[in-house]
Amino acid sequence: MFGLSYKILFFLPIFCLAFAKNSTFSLKTTKCQFISAKNELFCDSYKGNKTCEAIIDSLPLNFTLFAIGEFKATAGQIPLTWFRLFPRKIDNTGWWYYKHMREENKKMSLHSKDKVSKYNTGIVVVDSLCWNQMAQVIKSSSTFDVIQTERYNYGIFAKPFYRVKMIGTLEIL
Ligand SMILES: *[C@@H]1O[C@H](CO)[C@@H](O)[C@H](O)[C@H]1NC(C)=O
Ligand SMILES: *[C@@H]1O[C@H](CO)[C@@H](O)[C@H](O)[C@H]1NC(C)=O
Ligand SMILES: *[C@@H]1O[C@H](CO)[C@@H](O)[C@H](O)[C@H]1NC(C)=O
Question: What are the entry keywords (predicted)?
Fold first, then answer.
């Protein structure tokens, strides 16, 4: 006990000094905007910003706001990276889960053209190179929230709600 409090007392002034010295220090959450008129996706986060050409791949209903989930990746010869998208309910009372409403086998995400398949829907970045750089920006969010998301369909034994880590937002303009 004594050893721990001694360490805290020793390090606290060093932390304070480091923060005070860097007056530009700020927490930054990822913010993306899909600009429909230009077919462009703009993302801004801790590591700066990035713009890529993008398209909407059959999003259900006319959702305009999404929570961006954690970074996801597969290894292998052609590594794929993506982020799940959780739509804000139209009546603004909460968030839906990332599975496509009414079609539970469809998953909503922000991904590159390489991941396009009949199981994926969402916002698609056309150029793989641009996507790689954009994914680095998106995942650099320095804050996150834990939100409750609701499944549209669920069986008797399935949970209706899932808690997910949200690293930012995506808005459709
Ligand atoms: C100061 O803050 C900026 C971000 O605003 C960060 O990029 C930089 O690494 C920080 N420098 C130090 C010494 O912590
Ligand atoms: C995007 O980043 C560039 C380079 O750091 C900066 O000059 C520009 O102001 C940023 N744009 C926005 C809209 O934040
Ligand atoms: C789309 O959004 C508008 C308002 O933004 C709303 O009036 C309309 O009912 C929505 N359409 C559907 C199919 O949900």
Answer: Signal
